[in-house]
Amino acid sequence: xxxxxxxxxxxxxxxxxxxxxxxxxxxxxxxxxxxxxxxxxxxxxxxxxxxxxxxxxxxxxxxxxxxxxxxxxxxxxxxxxxxxxxxxxxxxxxxxxxxxxxxxxxxxxxxxxxxxxxxxxxxxxxxxxxxxxxxxxxxxxxxxxxxxxxxxxxxxxxxxxxxxxxxxxxxxxxxxxxxxxxxxxxxxxxxxxxxxxxxxxxxxxxxxxxxxxxxxxxxxxxxxxxxxxxxxxxxxxxxxxxxxxxxxxxxxxxxxxxxxxxxxxxxxxxxxxxxxxxxxxxxxxxxxxxxxxxxxxxxx
Length: 300
Hints:
Strand content: 25-35%
Radius of gyration: 19 Å
CATH class of the largest domain: Alpha Beta
Shape: globular
CATH superfamily of the largest domain: D-amino Acid Aminotransferase, subunit A, domain 2
Number of strands: 16
Number of helices: 8
Order of helices and strands: EEHEEEHHEEHEHEEEEHEEEEHH
Number of domains: 2
Structural class: alpha+beta
Helix content: 25-40%
């Protein structure tokens, strides 16, 4: 399959206040973010021309920047308007939008107080994150050797680029071994998340259990699915989960902007059977994100 490089496409990208040709949205090799990971970003889905929970994502982008000790020079309202401008210019009805903010190249070194804070927004059409057939049967995850860091050793409450290095390493290793993704434990050896999605288990007690997000992101999709589950009468238990407890789960699924609600068939030596709970919540999520914005907001 021939890949279309992301630096060589038609269209426009919003870059520091204006739309510019896609191919002109470039950085210098001595940009601070390239060397020191001083970058934060968001991943957002576009359904029927509408960005799902656009403002919530933008507010988190601002919050992540604050955790990394910089301030984005555009308000939430300005960023939301810029995202709309990008979608209109690209003619995207169903796709993905990526705002990213980073420190520039004015200072090169660990210290970078004087560096300009840049912001860019790009959007593109994007199909299902996992193969549709795999999503139906349940994807397979390998246990990663990398662990989510403790909150006092990394800014784990930010959607920061540097935190995804071990996700890339984990996913590459899993794919080389024939898996779709990887499950990561945290610094204590407890179940944390997949490389880009939160995880839920339907346990033998009939309740839905999910790890407490105390060293990884409490995903926007995660919170949405929890609300959908409660509306269905399912009981949600947020707690610390030991890896061996996965043996007690009948169903397992991932949630995320990219993954949406994806059933899991296997994590390492543990197997699951996609069934009613996962199918119901996946259907409810699909209906919600494809509802007109006013209806979706009322359903939250």
